[in-house]
Amino acid sequence: MNIEGYSYGKKEVPKSPVTLEELERLKQSASLTEEDLRHLKTAGDILEGQTDAVIDTWRGIIGSLPHLAYYFVGPDEKPDNEYKAKVKERFKQWVLDVCRRPLDQSWLDYQHEIGLRHTHQKKNRTDDATTPPHIPLRYILAFTAVVNDTIKPFLSRKGHSADAVEGMHRAWCKMVLLHVTLWSRAYVVETDW
Amino acid sequence: MNIEGYSYGKKEVPKSPVTLEELERLKQSASLTEEDLRHLKTAGDILEGQTDAVIDTWRGIIGSLPHLAYYFVGPDEKPDNEYKAKVKERFKQWVLDVCRRPLDQSWLDYQHEIGLRHTHQKKNRTDDATTPPHIPLRYILAFTAVVNDTIKPFLSRKGHSADAVEGMHRAWCKMVLLHVTLWSRAYVVETDW
Question: Phi and psi (nearest 5°) for B2?
């Protein structure tokens, strides 16, 4: 696996300002359970061959909305296809990481890194791109609804029971909200976050 | 209907800094459709007699987690029951408002008001209470997972088909994320939000 700019677990990723103790409180706040983690493992196996189609689904929605497509556009007002392609590979890997990665210090650090890469602080830097420098938090949060809603059909495509799909989907939704919560740290002053 | 401190549509509610045009973009970003709004109307009828039980479910989880229960505690380190009771009535009404209120200027203004009432800017003020003055954004976002996950059994309690419950639940999840997105405005500087 060699995905450009994907630095999960590498030492160039700065330490998250969020502690493991705080992460535990956030897991509790989202009611994320051991059962959810087991469901996510199965979800990872189901989604493994489908990540290209998953990202295409999300990109299709983003591409249909000019106010979202804007964040992939270069100074020539055309989509920056090289940037899009590189981000896509990391986004595909993210889908699997949501399902499989243990919630440890490396995970915590990389969530903060992902948050930063959506903001003025680090957007474009990984790929040396020239697209708009900051994705507003409101679009990240609102689009979470899409990420959670549209994953369900993909979870049901490998013949699992309706109950199993339901369990995996519930776990996915909680876990994605946990991710987005951590990404929001890059947008909010420490005392308010 | 006379709920203390519930000022939806009243002129003392300041205008939201978010425009209706931006709201339209956020609805699109969450893929909130006309069909979702129809599902939510039905959900409102189903939830109408159950709001007390819904809030008790959420409060049960909050109460079991000291780091969340903390925000309802007075200077004597005991739960402020008067404050809890008043907030509960508004929270119950919120469940129905999620399902029924048109997404107009009054709606937009009240979402911002709700956001402010979770922060330093306005927490405690409505009820003249003395609980901690600010609920961190991270707990609002993480707890959204609970609000979305736990509503589903309530939607299935009136004999609707699995498909209908699924449709209502999808709509609920999108709509709640739209709300939380607007509440986050009170936490983030304008240029980053």
Answer: -135, 95
Q: Which residues of chain B does A143 touch, with a Cβ-Cβ cutoff of 8 Å?
A: 29-30
Residue ranges of E strands in A32-78: none
Nearest to A65 among B29, B144, B193 (CB): B29
Q: List the one residue out of A81, A51, A30 whose CA is nearest residue B138.
A: A30
Strand partners, B73: B79
Q: Please, which residues have CB within 8 angstroms of residue A87's CB and are 6 or more apart in sequence?
A: A72, A127
The CATH code of the domain that includes B128 is 1.10.490.10
Q: Which residues of A touch B148 (CB under 8 A)?
A: 173
- B39-61 pLDDT, tens digit per residue, is 999 999 999 999 999 999 999 99
Whole-structure pTM value? 0.98
Within a domain: A24: yes
* CA–CA distance, A128 with A41 (Å, rounded to integer): 34
The ipTM value here is 0.97
* Secondary structure letter of residue A77 according to DSSP: S
Q: In A30-186, where does DSSP find H-type helix?
A: 34-47, 51-64, 66-69, 81-100, 105-117, 137-155, 162-183
Candidate from A149, A177, A193 with C-beta closest to B145: A177
A29 is in which domain, residue-wise? 20-192
Kindly give the residue spans of alpha helices, DSSP state H, lying in B104-192: 105-116, 137-155, 162-183
Count the alpha carbons within 13 Å of A16 in the hemisphere toward its beta carbon: 27
Give tens-digit pLDDT for A96-135: 999 999 999 999 999 999 999 999 999 999 999 999 999 9
Other CB atoms within 10 A of residue B58 CB: 18
The answer to whether residue A15 sits within a structural domain is: no
pLDDT tops 80 at residue A185: yes
How many independent structural domains does chain B possess? 1
Residue from B40, B116, B149, B173 to probe the interface with A (highest A Cβ count within 10 Å) = B149
Q: Given phi > 0 = left and psi -120 to 50 = alpha, else beta, which region is A77?
A: left
Residue A85 to chain B, least CA–CA distance (Å): 21
Residue B1 belongs to some domain of the structure? no
DSSP H or E segment with residue B94: helix B81-100
- A99 in a domain, yes or no? yes
